[in-house]
Amino acid sequence: xxxxxxxxxxxxxxxxxxxxxxxxxxxxxxxxxxxxxxxxxxxxxxxxxxxxxxxxxxxxxxxxxxxxxxxxxxxxxxxxxxxxxxxxxxxxxxxxxxxxxxxxxxxxxxxxxxxxxxxxxxxxxxxxxxxxxxxxxxxxxxxxxxxxxxxxxxxxxxxxxxxxxxxxxxxxxxxxxxxxxxxxxxxxxxxxxxxxxxxxxxxxxxxxxxxxxxxxxxxxxxxxxxxxxxxxxxxxxxxxxxxxxxxxxxxxxxxxxxxxxxxxxxxxxxxxxxxxxxxxxxxxxxxxxxxxxxxxxxxxxxxxxxxxxxxxxxxxxxxxxxxxxxxxxxxxxxxxxxxxxxxxxxxxxxxxxxxxxxxxxxxxxxxxxxxxxxxxxxxxxxxxxxxxxxxxxxxxxxxxxxxxxxxxxxxxxxxxxxxxxxxxxxxxxxxxxxxxxxxxxxxxxxxxxxxxxxxxxxxxxxxxxxxxxxxxxxxxxxxxxxxxxxxxxxxxxxxxxxxxxxxxxxxxxxxxxxxxxxxxxxxxxxxxxxxxxxxxxx
Length: 538
Hints:
538 residues, four-stranded mixed beta sheet, two-stranded parallel ribbon, 14% strand
């Protein structure tokens, strides 16, 4: 006699074991399928894990981790959080880093941890460790921060900051309210920087970008604070009535075409220009060790101990490191430059072989800085070549309205979000007070039919990374000369210094919209609604 219940139990067990094996193979072995965004090929979106997140599992596209079990183990928490701290990849396995996303890299690579209270102390401890890891970075803006630094102006000319110039820069930062009495950067500095309205001392106004880069080297503990997702109390919803407006449909029909670009420039010319730029501009600082000795007789407070003010310095000696490149450390100089510039290995080798021996000898002084600065200079030359030689051609592929409906966009009312009447969404999330003012003008002007702050999913491919324009605007017919407008909003155009790469992306955007719209869509960089009106009414 056959026990049907026993058979049923065996069948269920067999099925469960089969499912477990399939799940294990999918999660641990078939990562490419797991990353596929096509739900028909890979419908898995949630993984309930008992131990896979501890070690040995590397999936770069983890964006949410929900802890279901209370744990007091910091090691386990590190392993769990570590699963989500990798830069994500797209469906082609391409790493979504700064080279691809530019400034949006931090908007895309976000890990959300839905955690218990035990994570609070863990997060604070992790932040303290990060702070210690960058403890060698200066914590206050002082005159000494600038002395001896090399500034580069908009024409590529360089100057070394002397004591008088450093004093002028520092004094100007105090006058403009950018640093407090302890030398810490203020909220006003970050606000003006976001709006492109930073005021830099007149003596170095042409080298503003270099000055800002030095200021940003300051360690700011606020940057280490994780964002509290619960504070983002507004989730944007598409207004279906706006989506159905004839004006929006017409606007979308003129800007949703995709394009491909062709860059027809002479590689030999790029190699020559890169060699010349490296020989003229590459300056790599040597690595020094600074040893300070002194005494500490008494400590008045914890703050004195942390800032080092209770330590009386008596002597300071600087030693040059003549062996920055350790025999134990191998640098793939060619491979790194290929990754950073997108050039072929052949082109990179030609550039390195062509530069002066004195230029190349700087590599041994500071390999990391050599790679970073050399790649930046080569990319500047590449950007110049792109501006001169790029053309765009429209293709049949188009963006769908899912670029608006699919992403989840959140903000905080009164902080970086506000209600909107003419926006495609019911609210708008802005990045700066300049964007807020611009959106307010769009929302209240009777000439504007509908507008949208374009989401990250809408981008133009360029040789120097994806470019995401800020705004698409449709005016009522008969009110202005140019009905359809795509805008990039920046801060004060007089004080702003666009780097060549950013300038190249903007040039590419102009060529793209020319190619897809037959001149019916105007694209431009503006700093205010008034400037927008000046353009569309001409």
